Amino acid sequence: MNFQIELEKKVSEIETIIQSFLPKEEGFAATMAQAMNYSMRAGGKRLRPLFLMETCRLFQGEERLAAPFAAAIEMIHTHSLIHDDLPAIDNDDYRRGRLTTHKAFGEAMGILGGDALLNYAYETMFRAFDIAPGEEKVIRAMRLLASKTGIDGMLGGQSVDVENDGKPLDKDMLDYIYEHKTSALIEAAMMAGAVLAGAGEEQISLVEKAAGNIGLAFQIKDDILDVTSTEEELGKPVGSDEKNHKITYVTLFGTRQAAEKVEMLSREAIELLDSLEQKNEFLSLLVEYLIRRRK
Hints:
The chain is mainly alpha-helical. Helices cover 72% and strands 1% of the residues. The protein has a two-stranded antiparallel sheet with strand order 1-2.
């Protein structure tokens, strides 16, 4: 398999799925729809929908049923980026190589557009019932995404991150932030893909553990790139962690130890996935790719 060609093909498929679910830019609320779509069309790695679709394929699930969830999870993720960039939090001007939403549309529309995108994600998930009315696995997948997004998941992690911004952190609290702010949504993506494909309880539990490792490794890699990459490569300012006085794995342990942690977590995730009877070569290669990325 030529991984890079396959990745580009699959990301293009994800873009088509996302585009098919975006709101229409019309009527009195057209500006809000424009702000939502501006953020969603800004590109990015599309990792969470990729993980969702590839885990669904791993268990031979119906891709048509997974598509609304793939679009929805990217909406949830993008909403979190819009709000992260706001002046009250990270105060960033650029994201994915272009002006952040609040810079392009104003702070008020940045707040409202992010709120609308989070709500629209759930509207999009509900469209899975058009394909499978009353299907229990659809209900379960929705419950998973709701739980992993809320106070016990991504938003809970973000709140602890914001509350402790600039304060000394130990490893336990940093792990809590990373496991909730970043890992939770990757867990949601992979678990929802498995649930929608009808995977068993043991398989779903194993997928959750692998996804937790992937999420933690991904966030630590971001810490490393913030001090080793360039603004051109990342599409956003580098050194923002230092600027915002953030404690990261790099500030706690140094670049080398942080990189070793990324390697260890990624290897464990691949071993967990390889232990499944079902196989998806691309999924394992995607985890490998995340270790080596420069953006």
